[in-house]
Amino acid sequence: MARGKARARNRSDVVIAGGGLVGRTLALALAKLAPKGFRIALIDAEPPEAKGGVAEDARALALSAATRNLFAALDLWPLLAPKAQAIEAIEITDSALNAALRPHFLGFDDELRSDGAGAFMVEHGDLQRVLAAAVASESVIETRASERVTDFNTDEFAVEVKLGTGATIEARLLVAADGKRSLLRERAGIKCVGWSYPQIGIVTTVAHARPHHGKAVQHFLPSGPFAILPLTGNRSSIVWTEESERGKAIMAADEERFLAELTQRFGLRLGEIALAGPRQFFPLDLQIARSFVADRLALIGDAAHAVHPLAGQGLNIGMRDVAALAETIVEATRLGLDIGAASQLERYERWRRFDSAFSAVVMDGLNRLFSNDSAPLRTLRDLGLGLVDRAAPLKRFLVREAAGRTGTLPSLLTGAKF
Ligand SMILES: Cc1cc2nc3c(=O)[nH]c(=O)nc-3n(C[C@H](O)[C@H](O)[C@H](O)COP(=O)(O)OP(=O)(O)OC[C@H]3O[C@@H](n4cnc5c(N)ncnc54)[C@H](O)[C@@H]3O)c2cc1C
């Protein structure tokens, strides 16, 4: 690296590549917690006006209790709470698509209400808008939108980050928050383990005649799980996993046919339904980076791991990365240590890699177990669900696990500023 030249250009302590939900939250955590004088560059490929519009992303996200704590510690929860719908109960069913009845096999209600372990649903656009405004109000974050990180070089002391415009920024650490198809992960030569699912995830919003009372429903159907997730008002978000070819045909259908397919899966429990938002689909993959770090580089969010959306955990796992990396960086800075040193990056990786791989494997196992029409398998899994339903301590453990409250937690996930 031409160090004399680089010094004359832009300098920052950390460069974050990717201004999605994960990259923005890390920028904010560092701005609020790192010692005075710490500088953050946030580079995002998308133009600023593309963020936060409901039309761009039809998803709504289930935020775990740990993610809610993180947002509370960053003073974001008071802004999000009016837009959030609490999940008060969960019902799980397992049946064929044309079954007349979908018997309830597993339910969580008291477990969710008893110790604040419940999740909240927030629409993607609302979350982006709140994060964008909070980032804009922090003067130590230099945001560059419509700009790409294209490459980087490292030496013993720094990383030189190259942008699409030809500009460079010198920093101690580069964070790759550039999503599932991360260019920076590829440039660092980090391979992934995993596979693509022969399924797509269809997402939309429906309005219904009757109130949902905060109940989330997961119908395990042979082609994949169909989730009905409560939003504010008489509305629910749909995450509909479907076999790829059939799913694309359903996506291409006119509104009447699409609604008929949706109604067949949704059922009549909440009365008549109508589409109340755009429809969108996502390819689904399981993908874990073989390493979460390289020389002066840390991967976070979907750049490090992508999981099946059936339990609504992808972003929550990414927020655990944010909390662990923020704590590692802030503590090193306070001690006057090099935030990009191998020892600091190893600490972050030890904290996060096993946990992420474990979550991905659990999601994959559930999808395999349920996404089929085998009668003996259905009998076995329904027996298993019935047993879990009667075992109160096991149900409490599962709720704590989904809430992100097991294992050694970074402080931010408990809601504490450190
Ligand atoms: C159908 C579906 C439902 C889901 N539901 C849930 C849920 O309920 N709960 C949950 O926790 N998770 C859920 N997830 C997962 C969640 O949406 C993702 O984990 C999360 O959005 C990933 O955020 P990210 O910021 O890591 O990546 P991204 O959102 O992909 O953001 C990456 C950003 O980086 C930018 N970028 C890319 N390359 C560059 C570059 N070279 N330079 C600069 N910028 C770059 C992109 O423009 C983008 O803005 C769901 C996923 C799907 C598909």
Report on the architecture of this protein.
This protein is α/β, with parallel strands linked by helices. Helices cover 37% and strands 28% of the residues. The chain has helices at residues 3-8, 21-33, 65-73, 77-80, 110-114, 124-136, 183-187, 244-252, 255-266, 314-334, 342-370, 375-390, 392-402; strands at 10-11, 14-17, 40-43, 60-63, 85-86, 89-94, 104-108, 120-123, 141-144, 149-154, 159-163, 168-171, 173-176, 192-208, 215-221, 224-231, 235-243, 273-275, 280-289, 293-294, 297-299, 305-306. α2 (21-33) packs parallel to α10 (314-334). It is globular. The model is unreliable at 2-8 (pLDDT under 50). It binds flavin-adenine dinucleotide. Residues 17-23, 43-46, 59, 61-62, 148-149, 177-179, 183, 201, 203, 239, 282, 301-302, 309, 312-316, 318 line the site of flavin-adenine dinucleotide.
Q: Kindly report how far apart the N and C termini lie.
A: 35 Å
Strand tally is 22
Q: How many DSSP helices?
A: 13
Assembly level: single chain
Summarize the topology.
Layout lengths: L2 H6 L1 E2 L2 E4 L3 H13 L6 E4 L16 E4 L1 H9 L3 H4 L4 E2 L2 E6 L9 E5 L1 H5 L5 E4 H13 L4 E4 L4 E6 L4 E5 L4 E4 L1 E4 L6 H5 L4 E17 L6 E7 L2 E8 L3 E9 H9 L2 H12 L6 E3 L4 E10 L3 E2 L2 E3 L5 E2 L7 H21 L7 H29 L4 H16 L1 H11 L16
Parallel strand pairs: 1-12, 2-3, 2-13, 3-9, 6-15, 13-21
Antiparallel strand pairs: 4-8, 5-8, 6-7, 10-11, 11-12, 14-17, 14-18, 14-19, 15-16, 16-17, 19-22, 20-21
The structure holds flavin-adenine dinucleotide.
Flavin-adenine dinucleotide binds next to α2, β4, β14 and α10.
